[in-house]
Amino acid sequence: MINWTELGEWATAFMVVISGALTGHYAAEGMNAVQWAGAICAVLGSVTLAVGVRIWPAQQKARAQRARD
User: Fold this and answer.
1) What confidence tens digit (pLDDT) does each residue in 33-50 have?
2) Are the C-beta atoms of 15 and 46 separated by less than 8 Å?
3) What is the pLDDT of residue 11?
4) I need a labelling partner for 18 at 20 to 30 A (CA). Which of 39, 42, 49, 55 fits?
5) Are 21 and 39 in contact (CB under 8 A)?
6) Which region holds residue 30: left if phi is over 0, alpha if psi is between -120 and 50, else beta?
7) pTM (2 d.p.)
């Protein structure tokens, strides 16, 4: 059975793949500087979100372990 953590990880990975694919598709058609800046922000934002989703539980566990010690 899938839990919320796994769903979040898969959803953010999907977002990274889709934003990269769309960026590549539109780059092949030709983009101006403003469109490139927007595409870079979209890809970096989705990667940041994906990393944040994966790191967040580890920080919570570390904080709980420090509180116990």
Assistant:
1) 999 999 999 999 999 999
2) yes
3) 96
4) 55
5) no
6) left
7) 0.75
Those residues whose C-beta lies under 8 Å from the C-beta of residue 49, and which sit 6 or more positions away, are 12, 15
Output the DSSP codes for 8-52. Answer: HHHHHHHHHHHHHHHHHHHHHH---HHHHHHHHHHHHHHHHHHHH
C-alpha 68/C-alpha 40 separation (Å) is 42
pLDDT in tens, 10-36: 999 999 999 999 999 999 999 999 999
**Residue 12: other Cβ atoms inside 10 A:** 19
Task: Specify the 3-state DSSP secondary structure of 3.
Answer: coil
